[in-house]
Structure formats: C-alpha cells, structure tokens
Amino acid sequence: MNAEKRHLQWESILKMTEDLQLLSATQNWQKMNDISTQRQARLARFFSVSVTDSEAEIVAQGIQKILKSDQLTKQVCRQHQKGISSEVQKINTGRQALKAYGVSRG
Q1: pLDDT at 50
Q2: Domain range for 63
Q3: Cα 63–chain centre separation
Q4: CA atoms 86, 87, 88, 93: torsion sign
Q5: Cα–Cα distance for residue pair 70/64, rounded to 1 Å
C-alpha cells in the first residue's frame, strides 16, 4: 500500500473518532456502535502493516487524539448511564409503591 493510501486510511480512522464524540453528544447510541465497530476493524487493518518511520509521528499524535476522544466519549456515556439508572430506580420505586398499595387495599 502506498504512503498516500495509508495516510487517507489513517485520516478516516481519525474522522470516525470525531464522529463518535459528536454522536455521543446527541446520544445516537446505535450509530456510535456501528461506527465504533467499523473503526475497530479499520484500526486492525491499519496496524496489520508496520508503521513506517515517516508515519510514526503522525500516528502517535493520532493515537493521543483517539485516546483523549475516547475518554471524553466514555464520560458522556457514563453520565447518560447514571441518568438512565436514576430513571429506572424511580420507576422501580413507583412500581413498589403501587404494589404495596394494591396489596394493602386487598
């Protein structure tokens, strides 16, 4: 594979990383899952060939961007998960109250 094609391959991986962060902000979980799976496959393909000396610096910078972006995306997901957990807890509490009320009436 020539250097230009490898560069474009790497840029597409970085673009997917940016897309994942944007999708987490809009809570588009299905699309995030799809892109994450595609990105993982592209990363595996990219790194199936050794990184050349001329690529090393840009790849290292890209890896740092990916790590930082993934960390931010995980934080957004954790916050959303906490919100969902809180809502589920409220629903369960309401169900328990209704069940107790129904039992005490009978």
Answers
A1: 94
A2: 3-105
A3: 15
A4: positive
A5: 10
d(CA 61, CA 90): 44
How high does pLDDT run on average in the chain? 90
Could you tell me which of 60, 72, 54 has the C-alpha nearest to residue 6? 54
Joined together, the tokens standing for residue 1 give 């594979």
Within the chain, which residues score under 70 in pLDDT?
Answer: 103-106
In this structure, what CATH number is given to the domain that contains residue 57? 1.20.58.380
Q: Which stretches of 1-106 are DSSP H helices?
A: 3-25, 29-46, 53-105
Given this model, what pLDDT does residue 53 score? 95
Tally of domains within the chain: 1
Here the tokens at position 65 are 């961007």
